[in-house]
Task: structure prediction
Amino acid sequence: MTFKVTILGSSAAMPTVNKYHSAQILNVSEQFYLIDCGEGTQNRLMKLGINPLKINSIFISHLHGDHFYGLFPLVSTMSLMGRRTKLKIFAPRPFDEILESHKRYFDIGTGFDIEFCEVRTRENNLIFENKVMEVYSLPLRHNIPCAGFLFKEKTPAINIRKDIVDRFQLGIAQIVSLKRGEDIVADCGEHITSASVTYIPYQPRSYAYCADTQYSAKLAGLIQNVDLLFHESTFADIDKSLAKRTGHSTTKQAAKLAVNAGAKRLILGHFSARYSDTSLLVDEAREVFQDSFEAKEGSVFEILRN
Amino acid sequence: MTFKVTILGSSAAMPTVNKYHSAQILNVSEQFYLIDCGEGTQNRLMKLGINPLKINSIFISHLHGDHFYGLFPLVSTMSLMGRRTKLKIFAPRPFDEILESHKRYFDIGTGFDIEFCEVRTRENNLIFENKVMEVYSLPLRHNIPCAGFLFKEKTPAINIRKDIVDRFQLGIAQIVSLKRGEDIVADCGEHITSASVTYIPYQPRSYAYCADTQYSAKLAGLIQNVDLLFHESTFADIDKSLAKRTGHSTTKQAAKLAVNAGAKRLILGHFSARYSDTSLLVDEAREVFQDSFEAKEGSVFEILRN
Result:
């Protein structure tokens, strides 16, 4: 049961030779979720051997071109590859207008429906749900409406210790009661409490994607104990006034957010092209939060079950 | 005095891992002209060490996304890089509406003006001219309005043989007359004809870009004796009915056009992704026109002065 993020593009608005516009792919139990879709996303997917047709849904944080210039080319390729299943695209308004405008001017019909799902960027809402996962919108503070996304595995069904079932020869009805949290009396007369014989088989895993945004103290409260946090860090600590002015964060602000959220690991990215040695940016963040890592094209961050 | 074409992208509508959407850059005396601008063009430019700011003008053949999905990302990067000079974009209508729609929805202002220059796709017009070059539109036959472009060096100023100037001690007025095509009498009484002592220093070079199009017999007449011809060949000869239905050409049709135009060299490209071994497509064309070559990402076709 996989839960991993692959970085497709990590650059800020100005890409470089080896850094592409923002895009990530989240694999949850072999269902693929695309998060932002900068120019060249489809090529990055192909280079990593990820079939674009496997994409379940797409989540766009905001409507700056560097976060979705690759979307319509990808949709075009999906269509040429024969996609027939509906594609849900979660994005802030006016993405619906952009989509209509694109359909009007670009003479490429799709063989599948696209459903626009509005993301309200000031609200912390459940916006997507399936059997294994929920996705919540996270209000961010950028210079246009912008949302982050919290991807959370659902809490798995409670399990009961097999040795207990065997020892007390428990029947289906007794097992169901215990799993419901009810205490029971076994056939032999033994009193069995649910708490003593049931357990959650694994801790649900979570990933928060937060780009683009100024430092937001409130955000930490919405992603408490997240396993993996991507937080943009466009600027070095010394450029914090520039960060504030442009609606972005610094390395140390991203790290501070990770500390306050109780995150286990932090991915830093969306670095401005002005910094040639990005390892220095990671070093800065590590002064505040040790488990900080750089988003590099092709790098994979997996969260294992525990 | 350079005159060379570099292939940035050669694929048809569906790109592959190593084949990108249509884009080429023409370097004429270190002025750069971008021809079509598929997704990822700016990255291809950077990888080849071509500064996007060097682009003088952009020529878009038609408004299928695979020929201009990379345009707005490139314009955004030009702006971030500090471009201030006006950018002329030659394209068919309704590119003007698409440009306005983009400005309305994408929150990225440019620090320079964009001038839309309409290309009338049914006409063979002079659409661009500077000191060294002229560009003509070429009517093509696609399933939406589509134009090719003929890039022609201007005929250079006539020269006069230096040995004649020295031998007859010709003065400025006499040289000017000879260059004008007038015959003169030298101070020593010798009659000198213009034709016998003047020459064109080099043959003006030309490049024709023809994508996307069905075979068009008329096209050959508009590009007679072209030095270098790019002609799309989306399909193999066996798929010619499919080519016709989709508004495209086959390898042999492209080669036939090269023969009829009296072209010196032919570049084939825009191959459908269905053909895994593209060398077979080039072989097919060579049965009709020997000097056929494949457009490959990064390949350069230079026309030397003669």
Q: What stands out?
A: The mean pLDDT of chain B is 95.
